[in-house]
């Protein structure tokens, strides 16, 4: 109830010490379609759900290559994500140019977080409406970070963001302890299985997801549809043994199971620009 | 009162020679590996050839510190291009980029004498030759560096290409086969090494074809 009084601009605190505009920005992340990241000791896998505005259009790109050793998956306002990816690429190139060595992932996420923080403390700006899963490999090993619109960032073994991500997170929570020692193939399989959790009943097809890998001796690249379909084929025949992936965790926007082909049409509250 | 001149120069010439020849489906880029300063040799094993993109290879003689800086700038710009266009730069595109980059420093130039070789969009060999400030031309063959004055007249004799100003436009590529072109390159370098003190030690040859790049190394006189 009190939210409405103190949420007009980002430079207004609420009496309870919250910045509502920043929190609203985090809501935008939850509206976007799911993005998932997991890492082992030597590899990082980023995967996302391909959601298209309509049957006529192509789906939006949610995973971007930043450098050979860093990739980023986004959820929320994809336009903001695209702009931030360009910034990350620029930072990476400038670092390589000056130091003749790849930009450590931790340094990149700090710069990204600082950039996001600026937008939470200027009256003429708004926070970025996108969450970023930054996966990368540097001298200290494989890393996966999550950058919030708030300017916070956290390191994860595995994480999922976007709509119905709770289903994926539940799956990952059960399995994450083994990820560090996972093989590359198992990691990819777990990523695709986590994606499947977010689809909630829809049949998993390679056209519905995008998967990217990077690792030691393996620069960032996307997996082609055939490879993804092969992994799907290994488990799609197995009957579902897990508990219902949906859970009682109802998302705020009540994204009910719209018919598979409808895509975004079922979510009435989702603005067209958010994917 | 006569004008005072600097007693220090920001430039140095590290010598060496670079050659490139364009063929119907290949391009040969070659350079010696000697790096000198004044009358001394700094090293006998320095590569002046640098791959910029899958189909574009740059060879530069002159001041190697400027050459290194130029290569770094081009490499970064190429990465930006790849992010934006999702593909590698073509040789003609790289040629224009190199020209622009050089002219950008028109009033404090890169002391680099460049030859860019590669395959164009149709898969035919192409060679671009430059001066220090970016003036460039697509040619069938070229030589730059300390031995260029010895090599160029001989290449003209063997490979004379039609003027790019002719109409209708004629192909600049040589009718030589790839082994013949490589042999010609070895011959001209052996000759240049005899009379140019800054050329010698080893010859590095890169042969660019549609399926990839091959490298050959040949010994030259070390005196």
From TrEMBL, chain A:
Subcellular location: Cytoplasm; Nucleus
Domain Proteasome alpha-type subunits: 6-28
Family annotation (SUPFAM superfamilies): N-terminal nucleophile aminohydrolases (Ntn hydrolases)
InterPro entries: Ntn_hydrolases_N (IPR029055), Proteasome_alpha (IPR050115), Proteasome_alpha-type (IPR023332), Proteasome_alpha1 (IPR035144), Proteasome_asu_N (IPR000426), Proteasome_sua/b (IPR001353)
Keywords: Cytoplasm, Nucleus, Proteasome
One Gene Ontology cellular component annotation held by this UniProt entry: nucleus
Residue spans of biased composition, Low complexity class: 253-262
CDD domains: proteasome_alpha_type_1 (cd03749)
GO annotation, biological process: ubiquitin-dependent protein catabolic process
Stretches for region Disordered: 237-275
Superkingdom, taxonomy of origin: Eukaryota
Biased composition (Acidic residues): 239-252
Function: The proteasome is a multicatalytic proteinase complex which is characterized by its ability to cleave peptides with Arg, Phe, Tyr, Leu, and Glu adjacent to the leaving group at neutral or slightly basic pH.
UniProt family annotation: Belongs to the peptidase T1A family.
Subunit-structure text: Component of the 20S core complex of the 26S proteasome. The 26S proteasome is composed of a core protease (CP), known as the 20S proteasome, capped at one or both ends by the 19S regulatory particle (RP/PA700). The 20S proteasome core is composed of 28 subunits that are arranged in four stacked rings, resulting in a barrel-shaped structure. The two end rings are each formed by seven alpha subunits, and the two central rings are each formed by seven beta subunits. The catalytic chamber with the active sites is on the inside of the barrel.
Name of the molecule in the record: Proteasome subunit alpha type
Automatic annotation (TrEMBL), chain B:
GO cellular component: cytoplasm; nucleus; proteasome core complex
Alphabetized UniProt keyword annotations: Cytoplasm, Nucleus, Proteasome
GO BP: proteolysis involved in protein catabolic process
Protein location: Cytoplasm; Nucleus
UniProt keyword Cytoplasm present: yes
Chief place where the protein resides: cytoplasm
PROSITE patterns: PROTEASOME_BETA_1, PROTEASOME_BETA_2
Keyword presence, Glycoprotein: no
Functional description taken from the UniProt entry: Non-catalytic component of the proteasome, a multicatalytic proteinase complex which is characterized by its ability to cleave peptides with Arg, Phe, Tyr, Leu, and Glu adjacent to the leaving group at neutral or slightly basic pH. The proteasome has an ATP-dependent proteolytic activity. Component of the proteasome, a multicatalytic proteinase complex which is characterized by its ability to cleave peptides with Arg, Phe, Tyr, Leu, and Glu adjacent to the leaving group at neutral or slightly basic pH. The proteasome has an ATP-dependent proteolytic activity.
Subunit-level organization: Component of the 20S core complex of the 26S proteasome. The 26S proteasome is composed of a core protease (CP), known as the 20S proteasome, capped at one or both ends by the 19S regulatory particle (RP/PA700). The 20S proteasome core is composed of 28 subunits that are arranged in four stacked rings, resulting in a barrel-shaped structure. The two end rings are each formed by seven alpha subunits, and the two central rings are each formed by seven beta subunits. The catalytic chamber with the active sites is on the inside of the barrel.
Family to which the UniProt record says this protein belongs: Belongs to the peptidase T1B family.
Protein name, as recorded: Proteasome subunit beta
Species in which this protein is naturally found: Brassica carinata
The organism's taxonomic lineage, starting at the top: Eukaryota, Viridiplantae, Streptophyta, Embryophyta, Tracheophyta
């Amino acid at each position: 109830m009190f939210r409405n009084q103190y949420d007009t601009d980002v430079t207004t605190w609420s009496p309870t010490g919250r910045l509502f505009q920043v929190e609203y920005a985090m809501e935008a992340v939850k509206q976007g379609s799911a993005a998932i990241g997991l890492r082992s000791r030597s590899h990082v896998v980023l995967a996302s759900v391909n959601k298209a505005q309509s049957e006529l259009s192509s789906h939006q790109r949610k995973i971007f290559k930043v450098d050979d050793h860093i990739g980023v998956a986004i959820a929320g306002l994809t336009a903001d994500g695209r702009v931030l990816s360009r910034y990350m690429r620029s930072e990476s190139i400038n670092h390589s140019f000056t130091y003749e060595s790849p930009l450590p992932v931790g340094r990149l996420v700090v710069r990204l977080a600082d950039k996001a923080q600026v937008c939470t403390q200027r009256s003429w700006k708004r926070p970025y409406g996108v969450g970023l899963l930054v996966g990368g490999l540097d001298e200290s090993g494989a890393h996966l970070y999550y950058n919030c619109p708030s300017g916070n960032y956290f390191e994860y073994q595995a994480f999922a963001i976007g709509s119905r991500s709770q289903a994926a997170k539940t799956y990952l929570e059960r399995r994450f302890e083994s990820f560090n020692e996972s093989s590359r193939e198992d990691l990819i399989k777990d990523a695709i299985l986590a994606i499947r959790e977010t689809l909630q009943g829809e049949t998993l097809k390679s056209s519905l997801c995008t998967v990217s890998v990077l690792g030691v001796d393996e620069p960032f690249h996307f997996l082609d549809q055939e490879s993804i379909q092969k992994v799907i084929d290994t488990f799609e025949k197995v009957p579902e043994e897990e508990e219902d992936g949906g859970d009682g965790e109802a998302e705020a926007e009540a994204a009910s199971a719209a018919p598979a082909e409808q895509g975004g049409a079922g979510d009435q509250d989702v603005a067209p620009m958010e994917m | 009162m006569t004008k005072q001149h600097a007693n220090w120069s920001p430039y140095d010439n590290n010598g060496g020679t670079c050659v490139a020849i364009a063929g119907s489906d290949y391009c040969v880029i070659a350079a010696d590996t000697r790096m000198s300063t004044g009358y001394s040799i700094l090293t006998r094993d320095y590569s002046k050839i640098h791959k910029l993109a899958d189909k574009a290879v740059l060879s530069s003689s002159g001041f190697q510190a400027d050459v290194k800086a130029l290569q770094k700038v081009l490499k970064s710009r190429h990465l930006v291009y790849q992010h934006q266009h999702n593909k590698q730069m073509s040789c003609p595109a790289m040629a224009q980029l190199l020209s622009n980059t050089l002219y950008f420093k028109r009033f404090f130039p890169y002391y680099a004498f460049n030859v860019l070789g590669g395959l164009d969009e149709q898969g035919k060999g192409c060679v671009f030759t430059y001066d220090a400030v970016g003036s460039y031309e697509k040619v069938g063959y070229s030589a730059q560096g300390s031995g260029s004055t010895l090599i160029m007249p001989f290449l003209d004799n063997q490979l004379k290409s039609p003027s790019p100003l002719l109409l209708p436009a004629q192909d600049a590529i040589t009718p030589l086969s790839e082994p013949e072109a490589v042999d010609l390159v070895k011959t001209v370098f052996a000759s240049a090494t005899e009379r140019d003190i800054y050329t010698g030690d080893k010859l590095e040859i890169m042969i660019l074809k549609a399926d990839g790049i091959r490298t050959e190394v040949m010994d030259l006189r070390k005196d």
